[in-house]
UniProtKB/TrEMBL annotation:
Protein name (Swiss-Prot/TrEMBL): Kinesin-like protein
GO MF annotations in UniProt: ATP binding; microtubule binding; microtubule motor activity
Location of the Kinesin motor domain: 4-344
Major location category of this protein: cytoplasm
Biological process terms in GO annotation: microtubule-based movement; mitotic spindle organization; spindle elongation
Organism superkingdom: Eukaryota
Family indicated by similarity: Belongs to the TRAFAC class myosin-kinesin ATPase superfamily. Kinesin family.
Record's GO cellular component terms: microtubule; microtubule associated complex
Keyword Lipid biosynthesis among UniProt keywords: no
Organism: Chauna torquata (Southern screamer)
Subcellular localization(s) per the UniProt record: Cytoplasm, Cytoskeleton
Amino acid sequence: HLRVPPTLLRVRPLTCAETRRGDRRVVHSLGDGTVHVSAARHDATFGFSAVFDAGASQEAVFEGSGMRQLVELATDGFSCTIFAFGQTGSGKTYTLMGPLGQSEARPAAPALLGLMQRSFACLLEHSRSRGPGLALSASYLEIYNEQVRDLLSPGPPCALSLRWSKTHGFYVENQLRVDFESLEAIVDLLLQAPLQLSIPAGSRRRRTSAHALNGHSSRSHALLTIYIRSRAPSACPSKQGTLCFVDLAGSERVKDTGSTGELSVEANNINRSLLALGHCISLLAKPQGKRTHIPYRDSKLTRLLARSLGGSGVTLMVACISPSSRCLSETLSTLHYASRARRVTTRP
């Protein structure tokens, strides 16, 4: 009964800077979930569950991604995860959260809202239709330079310990969970000045920097998890599902971004954790009988995502790429990465 597309591809438009520079468009959608890459010494076609080209609206991505079904599955007690990955500046954060810089004075237009906000609205509709039967809470973490930090806790971000248990797998010790009952409350936690608990807005605390390829580059991996607990009658066991949004920091080549000093250190840590994630995905994509040990412990990122990658969860991967000829190398890397991810199967 699980019809959620496992791997989607989103191709962003050429930017004004790329157009002025004379970059060519080297990625073309062929329809039916396929894209063609055409450039010197490169001619390849890739297939995915769905492809959203430069003209696709945020609503079209939400409706065509299977997110509504993921919300229903999470409400029914499944563990659901949505990844966004790709080169820095390829549109991952925009796809998940919409345009940055939203505020109470200048909120984003409804048409530009990303998968997160649309999923929250869908989830709260389910919550209202079920009456007081659902309890909703959220946690928000980032992995910065291989340290796990809580984006909702008051005070300066501090490193939290990552633990292991037989019943829960890897988990973050002492992370803060915040209850919410309205769309405004959860959006406040993410983007604006919160209305409760004097908790700082999570996304404003996430590490970002500007470099040659992206004026607002995420320097950490961010994991927002919504916990959905059903308050079942005393005679029945309660169920808890999760809806986890993972905004991976973008892969980047230091020579292209012009990163030096701290930015260079951050880039190396980002690329190292993404390499560990790619290695796990490559091994998980092999047939069951040919798999070797899956090295989840190689990074904090793969430890936290172990259940989503090869365990009992339902996972949706959204690969974001640039169509620019200048980004060809990173675009091909993302396409191959996503093609391997398509072969990973889980047993929810």
